[in-house]
Feruloyl esterase
Amino acid sequence: MKRHRHLLVGATMALFACVAISSPAMATACTNLRSLQLPHTVINSADDNTTGTFVPPGASPITGLPAFCRVTATLVPSSDSSIRIEVWLPESSWNGRFLGTGGGGFQGVITYNELAIGLRAGFAATNSDLGTGSSGCNPLFCGSAGNMGNPLAIQFGDPASPSAGLFGHPERIKDFGYRAIHLMTVRGKEIANVFYGQRPQRAYFAGCSTGGQNALMEAQRFPNDYDGILAGAPAFNRTHLHMAGLYGWQNAHASPGRFIQTGQMTLINQAVLKQCVGQDGGAPTDQFLTDPRDCRFDPKVLLCKGGNVPPACLTSEQVTTMQRYYAGTIDPVNGQIINPGSQRGNETDDILALGLAFQERLPEPAFDGLFYWVFGPSFGYPSSPTNFANFDFHHDIAKVDDQLATVLNATSTDLGEFRAHGGKLLMYHGWADPLIPSQSSINYFLALVGNEGQGVQEASFFDHGNGPGNPALRRTQSYTRLFMVPGMYHCSGGPGPNTFDALTPLVKWVEAGVAPDTILATKFVADTPPAVQMTRPLCVFPKVAKYNGRSDSNNAASFTCVTDDNDFNQKPAPKYGP
C-alpha cells in the first residue's frame, strides 16, 4: 500500500504567489481558480500541468497525461470535517462531461490513477479522501491495535501505535458515509463551471468497493448528482460486511489447527475446478467458474487420509474453517445469516487479492477499524468486554448497527427519483471476489426487482423464451443492469477475463438510449497488455455466457448469453439485508 508524506504546499504556494505579484500576465484560467470563493471550501492550489506527467506522493509517476489544470481543495461542512478533494480539468480535450470517482476501503488518500483514467478519456474528473485522512486513516486501516510487529500488517500500512480511527468524530463518519462524495461532486461541478465557462453537459460516477458503496449512496441519497453511475463490487451493506471480516478471522483463529497453511487455498481451488468447471456454461478448460452457484464442492473431500499430511490435504479442523468460509457469517443463537459466504472458486494464495490468505495472517481482522469507531480503543484490548477476538455475533450486532448503519449502509432499494430524471445504474461484480461476497450485488439487484414488483417471487423471475418475462425485471433493467464477471477477484485481477470498459457502455446508455446486453472482457497474458490470452462476453444478469462446445474457448465469439436456471442465491436475514 502507498505511504504518504506531507508536501511542501506552503512553500510552493508562496512561490506562486510571488510570481503572480511580479508577473500578473502569467495568470491563467487555471491559476485564477486560486481566488475562487465557494461555501465551506478552501482552494489550496490551482496549477497548470503541461508536462504529460504527474508524480503522486510516494508513488510512481503517471505518464501520458494531456495538459490539465490541477485543483486541490479542502471541504469543511462541519467544524470537525476536513475533506480533501482534487479536480483535474483537461485544458484542450474536454469532452463536456464530469466524472466523479471513488476509492477503496477507508480511503484517507486521493486515488490518482482514477483521476488519470478520467482525464485521459476527456472528463473533468474529481476524487476525494472521504475526509478520513485527517484521522490518519489509509485504505486498509482506520483504527487498530497497532501492527504488533506483524510483517504483513506493516507492509500494508498498519501504523505501529494503536489508533481509534473515527471514534468520537460523528461528523467525520457522516463524511465517510455519504457527505464527502456528494460535496466533492457539487464543488467539483462548480469548479469546472468556472474554469470552462459552462456547466458539464452530463455527469457520471465510477467506483469499485468503497467506490461502489459511494456510487449506490449517490443514487439513493442524491439522485440528481449524476446521470450515469457505475458501481463495482459495492461495499453497500457495510456494517455487516465488516462483521464478516471479524467472523472470518475468528473462524481461522478459533484454534491453531484451524489456520489454513500457505499453498492450501490453491489446493482447494484446484479441487473446486476439478469438480465444477465447465458445468455452469463455461468451457471445460477454464481456470475459473462461470457461475459458482452451480458448484456444490465440499472441502471434506480433501480430508487427510492414510499417510497424507498438510499442506497436501486438510485436517478436520481446516475442513471446518473452509465450510464456515463458504457458509457465511451466522448468528450462533438463531442461525440467521448476517452476511453471505464466500463463493467457491475464489480461493487464492495471492495476498493482494485480500482474501483469506491475507486476512488470517494479520494480527487482527482486516478492516475492523470500523468497530473502533463504536467501541473505542478498547476494541483492541484482549481483556475488554468487546474486542476483535470475542465480538459476539448475536449480542453485539445491534450496538454497531444502531450507531453506524443509517450513515454507512447504502441499502435502500427506492431509486425512484434517480430513475425519474433518467439516471442509469450499471453494476458489476467479480464472481471470484474473495473480499466482498459476489452474491451481495445479486441480492441488491433482486431487491430492486422486488421493489418494482412489490415483492416479486424469484421463481417467476426468468424468461425462458416462452413468454414476456417478468415485468418487474424489465422495469428494473430499464435503469439498472448488473454484469457478473467470471474469474475476477475484488475489482480487478484473477484468473478470468478481468479487464473491460464499462464506462463507455454506460455513457452510450445515458446519451443514446442503448442499454448494454453484453460487455467484452479480456484476459491479458500475465494480466499485462497487449498480449491477449482470452476474450469473453459479460452477460447482463440473469444471463450467463454459455460455451458452444466446438470453437476456440479463448474467443468471445464461441459463447452466447443465455438465460440461466434459477440458481440459489444466499441472502442475509431480512433485518441484515438485502
